[in-house]
Specification:
Keywords: Ligase. There is one protein chain. It contains 7 helices and 19 strands. It folds into 2 domains: 6-141 and 278-331, Ribonuclease Z/Hydroxyacylglutathione hydrolase-like (Metallo-beta-lactamase, Chain A), CATH 3.60.15; 147-274, 3-Layer(aba) Sandwich (Rossmann fold), CATH 3.40.50.10890. It has 337 residues and is an alpha/beta fold. A 7-stranded mixed sheet has the order 7-8-9-10-11-18-19, with helices on one face. A 6-stranded mixed sheet has the order 1-2-3-4-5-6, with no helix packed on it.
Amino acid sequence: MEPVLTFTDKGIYCAAGDFYIDPWKPVPRAVITHAHSDHARPGNQHYLCTKDSVPVLQLRLGQDISVQGLAYGEQIYINGATVSFHPAGHMIGSAQVKVTVNGQTWVASGDYKTENDGISGAFEPVKCHVFITESTFGLPIYHWKPQSAMLGDIRSWIHENQQAGKNSVLVAYSLGKAQRLLYNLQHAVPKFLVHGAIFNAHEMLRSQGWPLPPVELITPQTPKEDFKNSLIIAPPSATGSSWMRRFLPYALGICSGWMQVRGNARRQNADAGFAISDHADWPGLLQTIKATGAEKVFATHGFSSVLARYLQENGLEAEEVKTAFGAEEDDTPVIAE
């Protein structure tokens, strides 16, 4: 039997449907798992994604793109393939792609996390014959604390900074992570001040009806007094820039799964590191793979060789696959000095 999906130099390809999933080179028809830049690239003739991803994709790639949105679970028939999207829990609108051809079902996960963060939607494992999984944090050392505990750590850190007369600056990826923090910390501080990259995405999502708190855009005219008793959220690209100097004196906290490793916060000259990630940890990866009931697993972007070898040693057919995913800022490992 021919495989439902194959791995090509343009991306994950479905020959029966003649489409690509998250292609990294321009193609006529692209099926998109989510709107992060490493999975949704410009130049494709037509995009298919979830309904919630449509405005995010248009924000990133332009209003004039040809795009169609589907509800979760809604089926579409593309030539000889049946395609549907299922919640991935990674960010607003993110999905796994289920593709069935001649009774054989493959699922491409894109990026996913298994803990419901309250705003991104609850992850749903999908039964399949073959599962293509990310492995961003595919090492046993990565085991996330419950979100409630991590948010408690962040609230305590903000309080400590206030007591010390310091402004609190959290670094988080502008699309996904920032909204997760804003949604879950909206009762912890009286005001949020944000970088322009976060403001644009946030305002677009609020305009779509997402229950996110109001934020204020930081400009050269923002009074220094406004920084006190507020939470400032900035993208990773802002760290170490002149833009940050306006917040002095401040404490810097980095929100990333890479903060699980001791020393990574120090290497980035941060005062605190919070291991809060929008990707599955090691237990989450293993639990998901088991829940799919897949007979074979392909491990992509991340510690794919480690995960594939572990699965093989535990009796499951598994392979490592090289892809061009993993270039979003939260996916970039901190390199030790």
